[in-house]
Amino acid sequence: MSHVVKKRKLDKTRQDRLYFDSYSDVTIHEEMIADHVRTSTYRTAILRNSESIRGKVVLDVGAGTGVLSVFCAQAGAKKVYAVEACSIAEQAAKIVRHNKLEDRIEVIRGTVETAELPEKVEVIVSEWMGYALLHESMLNSVLYARDKWLKPGGLILPSKAELFIAPVSDPVLEDRLHFWYTVKEQYGVDMSCMSDFARRCLMNSDITVNAVTVEDVLSHPARFAELDLYAVTAEELRSVGGHFRCESFGSAAVNAFCVYFTVTFPCPDKPQAQALVLSTSPFKAETHWKQAVLYLDAPVDVVQDTPVTGTVRMYPSKESARHICIHVDYTIGEQKRQSKTFSIPDWSSDSHLLFPRTRLECRFVSTNLKRKKGGKKTGFSPVVSTCVWLSEAGSSPPFPGSGGDERVASSSTSRGTGEFRVRQGRVTNHPIATQDEGHD
Ligand SMILES: C[S@@+](CC[C@H](N)C(=O)[O-])C[C@H]1O[C@@H](n2cnc3c(N)ncnc32)[C@H](O)[C@@H]1O
């Protein structure tokens, strides 16, 4: 099956249509609201700022289901304009009525760039962050709203964003690279010559969204960029980045960099140091953003205190302004300087364009549970095949009868499909085979 991925430049209207369509389904909103770290941090931030919100006019940029607008009304806002471009606005309006807030929350269906509000606002609230912070490029819309609708001295929630980077190891990747050396022992065929090919395939230039385990982070993360939402301009968002320097905790192989972000909410009653932070750090509770993993071309060994230095630059891709690219120039220890540019994988068909946060996910389902007599499951067989498919809104496993006994782990890979092993209930990602489903 051919799998030629051609990058097509999409015109802006089409990009926006695809982008807003991706927010029209329930799954993405369910995932966002179920992300307790995200939603509860916003709720706490809004309630803690109730002094600044009470009796004031608020603009919720990209209101979705209207959850943040409702929090603002609960914090005492006199009026909330909940602006939402996609059809989820109808559900937001329903939720507003259901909560008897229609006198204070007005849902406006349309883009914030075209919406006409009857008045300026004192507060802007928005949840605009994409993978690696800037994927989706929604921050531009918040800045547009700030410049057009926020009164001087108004409040923006959140008000600051920061980006961090750290070198990481990836034991699953190491196992997958090593796998080709084990085939001879199993089947009498020496496939070790596949290892270079495997490395090129796996350590590619996709931005992989995955939850990095704390033990795999090889140094204190370094901050490389900060955005002040009161001051940053759309022009500055065309290139965001900075320098970083880390020192390795100990001996390990660096396989990748992990990039993550925090956003900060002001807390009027607390000193700056105690501001409320929504963090997507691997050292904090997992969020649906997980971390952006950027694989090097090949593993590099480090020992304790090996310096890892470089610069990161993030910018919108040429093909679609809503897709982020990350360029990293780096030096590890004595190695000469390397550079690599990463982008969100482009499966380039309308239905698989990776705007919505959920669609980067793959789902792993074991198909081969051990069973006792009488049908009660006893656990996983030591190695069982699993089936992986792209998680689309409402998609179901591509084989019958798997519903009740699924063992589903959520992750994302750069390839999207393939077969994996599950050992004692854990997906270990050893590929048994890689099957190309032609997602382009
Ligand atoms: C990440 S979701 C957040 C939804 C909701 N605020 C929440 O916290 O659950 C972003 C929402 O903003 C909407 N959106 C993005 N850009 C927009 C724009 N320029 N104008 C209006 N809505 C926009 C999207 O359709 C999407 O529903």
Automatic annotation (TrEMBL):
Protein name: Protein arginine N-methyltransferase 6
Subcellular location(s) of the protein: Nucleus
One annotated Gene Ontology cellular component of this protein: nucleus
Listed CDD domains: AdoMet_MTases
Residue span of region Disordered: 395-440
Domain Protein arginine N-methyltransferase as annotated: residue spans: 160-334
Keywords of this entry: Chromatin regulator, DNA damage, DNA repair, Methylation, Methyltransferase, Nucleus, Repressor, S-adenosyl-L-methionine, Transcription, Transcription regulation, Transferase
InterPro entries listed in its UniProt record: Arg_MeTrfase (IPR025799), PRMT_dom (IPR055135), SAM-dependent_MTases_sf (IPR029063)
EC number: 2.1.1.319
Gene Ontology molecular function terms on file: histone H3R2 methyltransferase activity; protein-arginine omega-N asymmetric methyltransferase activity
GO biological process, one term: negative regulation of DNA-templated transcription
Entry superkingdom: Eukaryota
Presence of the UniProt keyword Zinc in the record: no
Pfam families per the UniProt record, alphabetical: PrmA, PRMT_C
Keyword Acetylation belongs to the record: no
SUPFAM superfamilies: S-adenosyl-L-methionine-dependent methyltransferases
